[in-house]
């Protein structure tokens, strides 16, 4: 076995590989870009080597720099993780030329499966079922359109170099073929530098079922059962599970045999996944599945296989790369229970899943699964870490295993609803809703499920009544005193603060609410705003806050961060920005100076005009940045000379408001 390996990756997968290496007593070397200098994988590794600026082409894709880092640190092998250099045969060859071991398959195996058309031709020859289609060399419109007609519409045009669903176009009618072909080619050219395509039958009700395979250097190949990854959005996996719902023994035998045959055909070594598309218009049938492609690396979703087999796939990868035979024979690999994985991303489902960035000011995962289920969180970030714009915005993978599918699914839902993140929008609520989807719960899945119900799945969650009131109480800081576990403090808080009105400003739906909070008894407060008063009672149970009042019954948790307060209830979260007048006074303009944008963003709303007299603390404008609304308040009294226009996109440091000079001279 190796004594030291280098991990040519970042984020959760680098962390996950380090964990197994450590357990096996193998030293670890991390690599990092400028953006990752303080990243979790860097902190966890025994040693870390800086490899360049944030851009991946300058760092995580820089093969020569990574190989040099391995040589300098005495690493004997390189684990590529997934993505980046994991399926790059030139990298494998360079690693081997440098006298190091690549923890993965041979360059020849990667090449054989690298292009979808060649891989399909190879599989067809080996007798593995392949989606009916044209995988030949000819590329001109007339030939491809003729083939499409022969295959029968609808058809799917796919980039042969494709990945991540790019360069793929479904065509329903011959009239649309030429245009779709041109679009697929353009996309393929820009994404992969290769505009060649293949055309295949579009499977009407497809399920994506893949088989985990493993080979060693001694000619052994086994499978570790299947995973169902049918829950997809724009051809990208969202929730994966093992085993596939409704899988029959006959179907499983046919699929796993085909997968093992595929791996054997290319003398496969290491972890690999054979992806199949299954037509479920007539249920799962052993003659209705076809080879789609083989991923010659560890998959993002490998943990579901680990959960149901009890095996550590990274350990197997290391053993096989070190020349050992596979740790188990096929008969020794068993399946038990049911596992799910949900991919938690910094992205905004209500805006077309736009990737988000931000600093994870507050990050809390479920601590244990409900009932007897097991919970595993694979995260690459900690609280306080930033989701940078340079990389995939994945925050974590939430993985559960239950005794059966329904136990596992409810454990997944519970774990997602307990996830608390402030500082970035996430898809947590969307994922939690998916776990409640009737069709999904029934195991009636196909790749179109999410798209069909997308509106309901991404509709913004209604914040329960009382959320703003609770946020105001948290923002006031009073509850730390009044709801203290120490009765003396609570009472002292009461008598001491009784009658005093605490002003609190809270951003809410783009406006600034000004409230006054009065304590009128232990756990009892009155909130007043715009002449309206709301008496409430607030109790605390551990981290849970229970707020009751007229029409209010709210059980929630809260996070106080630099930018405001986030309330978490029923799996949804709501952020209330809290302007910090102290901070503005310190860091923002002095009288006569300018008020500048703290970060790049969009001027969402301007609440004043040039010539207005404003008071210190008054809301001037709302800046939308990093998917959140930030209120910009006046740092002092004064007259506004100029103000930025509503709708303008501003750079960090751009002038938002300029105050008049005369006013500046007033105290
Ligand atoms: P990529 O490499 O870009 O991810 P794949 O070939 O793996 O492309 O396909 C990605 C997804 O696209 C599949 O999981 C499936 O949902 C869908 N898909 C692929 N081929 C077909 C097909 N012939 N018919 C219907 N859907 C398909």
TrEMBL record:
Gene3D superfamilies: 2.40.50.100, ATP-grasp fold, B domain (3.30.470.20). SMART domains: Biotin_carb_C (SM00878). The lineage of its organism: Bacteria, Pseudomonadati, Pseudomonadota, Alphaproteobacteria, Hyphomicrobiales. This is Acetyl/propionyl/methylcrotonyl-CoA carboxylase subunit alpha. InterPro entries: ATP-grasp, BC-like_N, Biotin_BS, Biotin_carboxylase_complex, Biotin_carboxylation_dom, Biotin_COase_C, Biotin_lipoyl, CPAse_ATP-bd. It comes from the Bacteria. Keywords: ATP-binding, Biotin, Ligase, Nucleotide-binding. Residues 1-455 form the Biotin carboxylation domain. It comes from Phyllobacterium phragmitis. Its cofactor is biotin. Residues 585-660 form the Lipoyl-binding domain. Residues 120-322 form the ATP-grasp domain.
């Amino acid at each position: 076995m190796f004594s030291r390996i280098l991990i040519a990756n970042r984020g959760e997968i680098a962390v996950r590989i380090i964990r197994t290496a450590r357990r096996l007593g193998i030293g670890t070397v991390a690599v990092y870009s400028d953006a990752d200098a303080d990243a979790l994988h860097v902190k966890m590794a025994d040693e870390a080597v800086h490899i360049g600026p944030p851009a991946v082409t300058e760092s995580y894709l820089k093969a020569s720099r990574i190989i040099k880092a391995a040589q300098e640190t005495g690493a004997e092998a390189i684990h590529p993780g997934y993505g980046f250099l994991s399926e790059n045969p030139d990298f494998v060859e360079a690693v081997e030329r440098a006298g190091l071991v690549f923890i993965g398959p041979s360059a020849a195996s990667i090449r054989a499966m690298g292009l979808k058309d060649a891989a399909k031709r190879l599989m067809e020859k080996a007798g593995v079922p392949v989606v009916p289609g044209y995988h030949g060399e000819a590329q001109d419109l007339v030939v491809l359109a003729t083939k499409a007609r022969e295959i029968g519409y609808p058809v799917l045009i796919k980039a042969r170099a494709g990945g991540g669903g790019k360069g793929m176009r479904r065509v329903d009618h011959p009239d649309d073929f030429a245009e779709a072909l041109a679009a697929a080619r353009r996309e393929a050219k820009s994404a992969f530098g290769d505009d060649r395509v293949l055309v295949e039958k579009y499977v009407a009700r497809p399920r994506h079922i893949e088989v985990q395979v493993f080979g060693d250097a001694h000619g052994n190949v086994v499978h570790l059962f299947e995973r169902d990854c049918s829950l997809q959005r724009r051809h990208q996996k969202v929730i994966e599970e093992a085993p596939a719902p409704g899988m029959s023994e006959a179907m499983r035998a046919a699929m796993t045999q085909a997968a093992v045959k595929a791996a054997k055909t290319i003398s496969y070594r290491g972890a690999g996944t054979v992806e199949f598309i299954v037509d479920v218009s007539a249920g799962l049938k052993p003659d209705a599945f076809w080879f789609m492609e083989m991923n010659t690396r560890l998959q993002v979703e490998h943990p579901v296989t680990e959960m149901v087999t009890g095996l550590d796939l990274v350990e197997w990868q290391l053993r096989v790369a070190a020349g050992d035979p596979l740790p188990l024979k096929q008969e020794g690999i068993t399946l038990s229970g049911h596992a799910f994985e949900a991919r938690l991303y910094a992205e905004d489902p209500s805006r077309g899943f736009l990737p988000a960035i931000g600093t994870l000011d507050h990050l809390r995962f479920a601590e244990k699964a409900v009932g007897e289920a097991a919970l595993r969180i694979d995260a690459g970030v900690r609280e306080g870490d930033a989701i940078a714009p340079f990389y995939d915005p994945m925050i974590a993978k939430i993985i559960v295993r239950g005794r059966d599918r329904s136990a596992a699914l409810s454990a997944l839902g519970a774990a997602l609803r307990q996830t608390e993140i402030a500082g970035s929008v996430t898809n947590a609520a969307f994922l939690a809703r998916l776990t409640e989807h009737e069709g999904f719960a029934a195991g009636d899945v196909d790749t179109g499920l999410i798209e069909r119900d997308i509106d309901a799945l991404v509709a913004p969650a209604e914040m329960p009544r009382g959320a703003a009131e609770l946020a105001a109480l948290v923002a006031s800081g009073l509850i730390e005193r009044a709801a203290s576990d120490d009765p003396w403090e609570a009472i002292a808080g009461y008598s001491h603060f009784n009658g005093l009105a605490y002003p609190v400003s809270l951003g809410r739906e783009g406006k600034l609410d000004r409230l006054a909070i009065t304590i009128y008894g232990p756990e009892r407060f009155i909130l007043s705003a715009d002449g309206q008063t709301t008496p409430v009672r607030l109790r605390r149970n551990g981290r849970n806050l229970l707020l009751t009042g007229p029409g209010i019954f709210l059980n929630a948790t809260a996070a106080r961060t630099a930018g405001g307060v986030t309330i978490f209830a029923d799996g949804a979260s709501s952020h209330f920005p809290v302007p910090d007048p102290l901070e503005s006074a310190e860091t923002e303009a002095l009288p006569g100076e300018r008020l500048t944008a703290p970060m790049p963003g969009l001027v969402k709303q301007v609440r004043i005009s040039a010539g207005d007299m404003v008071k210190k603390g008054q809301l001037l404008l709302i800046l939308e940045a990093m998917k959140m609304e930030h209120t910009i308040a006046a740092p002092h009294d004064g007259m506004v000379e100029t103000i930025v226009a509503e709708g303008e996109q501003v750079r960090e440091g751009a002038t938002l408001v300029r105050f008049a000079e005369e006013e500046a001279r007033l105290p």
